[in-house]
Amino acid sequence: MSNMNQAMVEKYRNDFLKEVKANVEEGDWVQMCMQCGVCSGSCPFGPYWDHPPQELFMMIRAGKREEVLSSNSMWMCTSCYNCIARCPRELPITHIMHGLAHYADRLGLAPKEQPTRKFANRFWDNLVKKGRVNELKLGVSLYFMNGFIEGIKTAMAAAPLGMGMMKAKRLSPMEYFGGHGVKDSKGLDAILKKARQIEDEKIAKYNS
Amino acid sequence: MAEDIKIGAYICQGCGIGERVDTAQLAQVAQRDAKANIVKEHPFLCNAEGVKMIQDDIDNEGVNRVAICACSRRAKTDAFSFDNVAITRANLREGVIWIRPDTDEARETTQEMAEDYVRMAVTETKYMSLPTGDEETKYTPNLLVVGGGVSGMTAAIEAAKAGYSVAIIEKTGALGGAAANSWKRIPQRGPYADPEDTGVDALISEIEANDKITVHLNSTITKTSGAPGRFSVDITTESGSTVTENFGAIVQASGYKEYDASQLPEFGYGKSANVVTQAELDAMAKEANGAPLKTKDGKDVTSVAFIQCVGQRSDKEGHLPYCSGHCCSTSIKQAMYFKDANPDIDTNVIYTDLRTPGAGGEDFYRSGQRKGITFTKGEVSEVVESGGSLEVKFRDLILAEDTSEKVDLVVLATGQVANAGVNIEEVDQDEPGQFTVNVDSILNMDYRQGKDLPQLKYGFSDSHFICFPYETRRTGIYATGPVRRPMDMQQAIEDATGAAMKAIQAIENAAKGRAAHPRSGDLSFPHFRREGCTQCKRCTVECPFGAIDEDEQRFPVFNEERCRRCGTCMGACPVRVISFENYSVDSVGQQLKIVDIPDEFDEKPRILALACENDAYPALDMAAMNKVEYSAFVRVIPVRCLGSVNLIWITDALNSGYDGVVLMGCQKGENYQCHFVKGSEIAHIRMSKVDDTLQSLSLEPERVSVHEVAITDIERAPGIINEMAETIEKIGMSPFKF
Amino acid sequence: MADIIATNETILVVGGGISGMTAALEAAECGKQVILIEKGPSVGGRVSQLYKYFPKLCHPTCGQEINQRRIKANKNVRLLTMTEVAEVSGEAGNYSVTLKTAPRYVTENCTACGDCGEAVEAEFDSEHNYGLGKRKGAYLPHQMAYPQRYVLDPSIIGTPDATKAKEACKYDAIDLDMQEETTSITVGAIIWATGWRPYDANKIQPYGYDRFANVITSVEFERLMDPHGPTGGKLLRPSDGKEAKDIAFIQCAGSRDRNYLKHCSRICCMASLKQTTYVREKYADDGKATIYYIDIRAIDRIDDFYQNVKADENVSFIKSKVAKIEEDKASGNPVLHGVNTEGYERYANPHDLVVLAVGMEPSVASEDFPIKVTVNDNGFIEQDEANGAIFAAGCASDALDVNRAVQSATASALRAIQVVNKVAGMEG
Known about the structure:
The complex is a heterotrimer. Chain A has 2 domains: 2-111, Fumarate Reductase Iron-sulfur Protein, Chain B, domain 2 (Orthogonal Bundle); 115-196, no CATH class. In chain A, 57% of the residues lie in helices and 0% in strands. Chain A has helices at 2-5, 15-23, 38-42, 53-61, 65-69, 82-86, 93-106, 115-130, 135-143, 148-167, 185-207. In chain A, helix 8 (115-130) packs antiparallel against helix 9 (135-143). Chain A is globular, with a radius of gyration of 20 Å. By secondary structure, chain B is α/β, with parallel strands linked by helices. A 7-stranded mixed sheet of chain B has the order 15-21-16-17-18-19-20. In chain B, strands 9-6-5-13-23 form a 5-stranded parallel sheet, covered by helices on one side. In chain B, strands 2-1-3-4 form a 4-stranded parallel sheet, with helices on both faces. Chain B starts with 6 loop residues before the first strand and ends in a 7-residue tail after the last helix. By secondary structure, chain C is α/β, with parallel strands linked by helices. In chain C, strand 2, helix 2 and strand 3 form a beta-alpha-beta unit. Chain C is globular. The chains are: A mainly alpha, B alpha/beta, C alpha/beta. At the B-C interface, helix 6, helix 10, helix 11 and helix 15 of B face helix 1, helix 2, helix 7 and helix 8 of C.
């Protein structure tokens, strides 16, 4: 993976486009964009994107690998699917954005402090442990994501909510200790391992 | 004319005419003043009974001139259509009662107006006869196609399929034209996904198998003379032998040249062998015939940049100001040559506006993207050789930065330049955006006005009319394909089929002595009284269609089959020796003279309005439908074209005591709307000289005005008349009343 | 209608728009017998609803006048209005066609005097003005209508209005008992010149055509400029009659979009460029236009028109497919939201009026043809031997501008002539 991190891309040659097509979920579609910009305009989070989707697609074609993969932008997607609904060329933009984010993360190029990325990684780590999301642990880890003092403050602020949920039996403090998971956790591990293996092979194959 | 004139005048009382004017009085006027032989009133002239009444008079009473005094000549044409008689219309409805208020005060002037129109209509019939048509017509079901490319071959095949024989003249040694040098063409049928066979071989075999089509290879035209139905063409081979053949009509499919890329040093053409034009790339592909394309130094191509709009859509000197229409799709097609052979080859199309219109275009664009062709909105500034490859420097307009791309091969979309022969109008070469292709003449016509088809713009021999794309200024000769307008092959095929249609129509029309568009079917043609001619050449110079040549003594030689019957020659003639059977200096002149001119102290001025029958006259009709009022003092006479207006009409009008003259023609100039191309413009020039006449009569220049009127000028056209009425009120009545 | 004479040397042209008129006239002026049928009460089609043509900025009425005169003068053309094709069977050179003619309720006696129109009270949305204005229940379709004959709206039949119309007519031209007529004819070739319709703007939800009064379509905009149109030729916006001086044009409204029409409708870019000149014509230096586009497709020789408009500093171009329109409640201004993709800039631009450059779709859906014809994915008729002697002319064959439609119609006339000439045994 290391050599891919440093891959040199010639401008406007299709090296990076090909890399995206091979390795990014729905990356095949990037070439179909006609730069109308309706995705960028339709996105409710639009103003927060440094590079809106259509621009990212152009950057991919222009071979701006570093800029794209280290960009904050695709992490802005909240999966509202507005862009997909509007795209005149049928591009599954939401999926491409997630695909790009995931790929950047795998390569270790994603911005380290990107909050969406941090949340996603915590979510994932939490999930794969037992095959179910442990909401309490996830919540607590998120509270303390930005340091201990920040965590205490956030926790205090959210305390009434937590008490209410406990009363309504929507939250059990016991979950903090172990918590329940899927029945066949070995099976889950096997699935995840296999998936990881397939992806690695794909990248290795592309890279060879 | 020798035949006895028997005029029937029929006065309708319907549509309120009977209530608004005294039709009995009109009948009296028709009989007494205008000397109609039979005069009848009818409560509803256009119904079956009224029409029968007229027909009976034609059949039983020998009426051969019919003056319908009812509604506009544009209305009720189905009812008032009688065979074998000359018909005129007095416009009492749209021309009188609908444009005047229904008040007691207005009654007198409204009546006078109606009476004058009746006088005029009856008088007009006296000075016109039924056109008998040209008696020396020829049926020559034989078509000449100039150029053996896709357009020419298509025109030939399509005309042959309709039963006509065709000769194709091709300058080179083989049929096929530009397309023959292409490997494939842009798809013409769904799903519009892949380049397809050019179809050139199929066309050639079809032509070879068709015994109605003969082909003259290595041949050019050394002389074209004659007219539709009797073109005589000298066909000369490379070796110098000449045959003369007769044709009924001509289709000129002389194609295009690719713009000379060496005029664009910034794109590296000529400096690097790996910068090629679209045509060159296609030739390379054809030669390779599916094998991988190599660079000029024999290396595999790994990347190609296609640069769109090279030297096109540009106002730089020497560049083409237009878009050639096909190049976007052509680049997609050519990028597919690479992608289909090896998807790993990078192909980037650098464009400013990607133009792939219509149902197929967008599918083809998508197909190109699906195959991995990339598209970059950008403006290329330079192509330079750098380290064995080419560096394309450009501004990426989406990413808003100056950047560059290194490629093995650059393809330039340089556009089409029409092969239109000699620019007979010799456009000023220095004028920006205007240029000519300095080549030999294509048709070598012996026409007075020049050797080739007039060029419309940017060197293309196109029609100026949106509604009439095949309108041509040389009757019976139709330009088609890229010589007419930049186009791709699919469009050229459609275009050539249409041109073949027009050509066989010209053959049929010529045989019957019928005019071509826009007076299609008109059998009248100019008669010329040689004895009176002063050989001034105005008619031969001004004819918008080059229909009139000159003989050795410089007398005009009219070629009836070329004539469009606009009457510009009649308007031009200072000695008034040119006329049509049903439209002449007299048929209009006598009308304006029979108008009753009241005494100077009656304070009832008279205004003569000469209105183009296609635009200004309908505008006045529609104004009437909207009940827009205008002066009761005007007398409107429709004319075929303002170009047909002879100065004598103006002089006669002023001499007979008219107080003002208004001329209404179509828009002239660059975006001319005149259906006879130059008629309106010529009229404006002629009328600019009317001041001398006015001066010699000691009349104010304001008494004559010329206007460009559109058919939609429903308020403005009446306004022009009213303005003249106001002007007269200001400057006073003409002293020439008697 | 018993007097229609048609043989297998006759050409049937379906549709009386400019393509159909052209096809019919070109064939007729070549000496062929032609029956031209039109569904509506008059010929002219969509062209008669345009103010000006690009790129010459001339008036379509002018060519209409010539074409109408050609029809009036040519006895080879038989025109049947209010007539549609009900059935077709047979093969090239020998088709049996059943025509259905709807009752007009007005006979050839009509002089177009207009008395019936004045007598009738009921009003309906004017088709000619795309519903922007009203017309009477007895009406002349428009000023240039040919045949110049009134027509009664079928929904007034049986009402007192119908009686009023009949009583007002001095010429016994109103026949309230007129019935639909069916005619069977034989023809040798058929030309489909059934034309196009504007894409239904209501389907483009984010643009709020159905919600915002000041969002109109390009075809409606043409009607505003017509001196006979709903605003008497003034550029006023629908919500409050305010002068529309700052106008946005949205390209590809329904075209080049898999959600709507996949194809490019070809005419819309030039139409919008043309319409910017209307704004300037009406408001001179106060008139402003903004074109939101993906690609400006001013194809071939007429690209110079685009260059000229681009040089006008009151006209701006933004490369962007507008994402959505909202309405500023206070001003009634539509506000356009989106991203200028050239350099990535977001905008929220208010305008007085928005014109949607709506796409072109074939008038007749492929499944509605009375006989099987080959159409492409976009619904346009393809040239195909399987179609026998059925040929498409104009926008039935592709999204075309007027010039190209006429070109296509002229070509189709020849294709039809080839068939009937073969029938006549003329071909060698």
